[in-house]
Amino acid sequence: MAGDAEALVARLRGARGGQASAAAAKLTAAVWNDETLRAPIVQAGAPPLLVALLRSTDAAAQAHAADALSAPAFDEVVRKRIVDAGVLPELVSLVRAGNVDDTRNALLAIGWFAEDAPTRLLLVGEGAMPPLV
After folding, report:
1. Which of 41, 26, 96 is closest to 74 using CA atoms?
2. How many CB atoms lie within 10 A of CB 67?
3. 110: DSSP letter
4. Are the C-beta atoms of residues 69 and 111 closer than 8 Å to each other?
5. Taking Cα atoms as reference points, which of 19, 67, 8 lies closest to residue 43?
6. pLDDT band at 81 (very low <50, low <70, confident <90, very high)
7. Each residue of 55-69: pLDDT tens digit?
């Protein structure tokens, strides 16, 4: 389990260009299909790498990154580590940008992050409310 998580994160870490989108897609499939990988993927260092993809100009990579960040956000402890990686402003930016796939995945992630009261306040501070209304 931890070895699988580390391999997935290593693949994402080493990916360049279009490979980043493919690596994020593989990681996304893993976190949605095997919940036992969610915490180990976060512990292996995926959040900052996924946040970097949210900042990229590759729409597919952005959508996969937002989706990959959604599944681990179910877990309260893991959610905090992801928030600490700087994900909230990037998710709000994706919602504002309006790309359908990005927006859908970013909204799903925001929904899970909003489960936590202090994180809801951070989302409001990031300007999440206007694009949601």
Report:
1. 41
2. 24
3. H
4. no
5. 8
6. confident
7. 888 888 888 888 888
Q: pLDDT digit string (tens) for 22-37? A: 999 999 899 889 989 8
CA distances to 5, 19, 46, 61, 100 from 82, in Å: 16, 23, 9, 17, 23
C-alpha–C-alpha distance, residues 50 and 39, integer Å: 15
CA distances, 18 to each of 53, 59, 100, 110 (Å): 11, 11, 20, 26
d(CA 36, CA 5): 10
SS3 content of the chain, % helix, strand, coil (to 5): 85, 0, 15
Q: How many residues are listed for the chain in this entry?
A: 133
Structure tokens at 117: 């009261």
Q: What would the two tokens of residue 93 be?
A: 């930016």
The two structure tokens encoding residue 46:
């995926």
Could you give the maximum distance between any two Cα atoms of the chain, in Å? 42
